[in-house]
């Protein structure tokens, strides 16, 4: 009787430990951007779950260089940055937001853009790609070779 009593207590303690460890692992696996400490230099859009760089690349580049810039970016411990689609760029436009720089930007997340247009990864024709303007909330079909736009990077 005494041995079964000890085994019973030991088994109960063991099960409690298993449940405690299991619960801690489940909580760690279920972390979302809402309950993870913020990473400097990035913003996660709560509506889409996409993580954006807080600033664009800061200099004029053509479409190919914009793609290369984002794919080579290492920020916040991540290396899977990319140039966003035109729909993703449009999704962070907010006519009610006013972030001032050298021009007014209407963009969510207090992102800081250094030009009127940002390149997207979406191409319209072989030599054209879509760009988005946060000054007025419109998209433009532009030649990929012009060096007047910037690269704002995103990751999932």
Describe the structure.
The protein is an alpha+beta fold. It folds into 2 domains: 2-30; 37-155, Mannose-Binding Protein A, subunit A (Mannose-Binding Protein A, Chain A). 28% of the residues lie in helices and 21% in strands. It is built from 3 helices and 8 strands. It has helices at residues 2-29, 63-72, 86-91, and strands at residues 42-44, 51-53, 99-100, 104-105, 117-125, 128-133, 138-143, 154-155. The strands form 3 sheets. It has a 3-stranded antiparallel sheet, with no helix packed on it. A 3-stranded antiparallel sheet has the order 5-6-7. The chain has a two-stranded antiparallel sheet with strand order 3-4. The longest helix is centred in the first third of the chain and has 28 residues, at 2-29. The chain starts with a helix and ends with a strand. The model is unreliable at 10-35 (pLDDT under 50).
Structural class: alpha+beta
The CATH superfamily title of the largest domain: Mannose-Binding Protein A, subunit A
SSE order: HEEHHEEEEEE
Tally of separate helices: 3
CATH class group of the largest domain? Alpha Beta
- Low-pLDDT residue spans: 10-35
Question: What is the C-alpha radius of gyration, as a whole number of Å?
Answer: 24 Å
| Fraction of residues in β-strands | 15-25%
Q: What is the CATH architecture assignment of the largest domain?
A: Roll
Helix content: 25-40%
Average per-residue pLDDT, rounded, comes to 80
CATH topology of the largest domain: Mannose-Binding Protein A, Chain A
The oligomeric status of these chains comes to single chain
- Give the total of domains: 2
- Using the alpha-carbon principal axes, give the shape: globular
Instruction: Give me the side-by-side strand order of the main sheet.
Output: 1-2-8
Q: Major sheet: size, sense and barrel closure?
A: 3 strands, antiparallel
End-to-end C-alpha gap: 59 Å
The beta-strand count equals: 8
């Amino acid at each position: 009787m005494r041995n079964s009593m000890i085994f019973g207590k030991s088994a109960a303690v063991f099960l409690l430990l298993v449940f405690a460890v299991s619960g801690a692992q489940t909580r760690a696996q279920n972390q979302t951007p809402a309950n993870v400490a913020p990473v400097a230099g990035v913003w996660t859009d709560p509506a889409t779950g996409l993580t954006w760089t807080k600033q664009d690349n800061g200099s004029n580049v053509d479409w190919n260089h914009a793609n290369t810039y984002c794919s080579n970016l290492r920020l916040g411990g991540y290396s899977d940055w990319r140039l966003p689609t035109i729909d993703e760029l449009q999704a962070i436009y907010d006519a009610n937001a006013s972030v001032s720089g050298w021009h007014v930007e209407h963009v969510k997340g207090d992102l800081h853009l250094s030009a009127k247009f940002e390149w997207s990864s979406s191409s319209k024709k072989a030599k054209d790609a879509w760009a988005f303007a946060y000054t007025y909330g419109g998209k433009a079909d532009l030649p990929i070779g012009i060096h007047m736009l910037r690269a704002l990077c995103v990751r999932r």
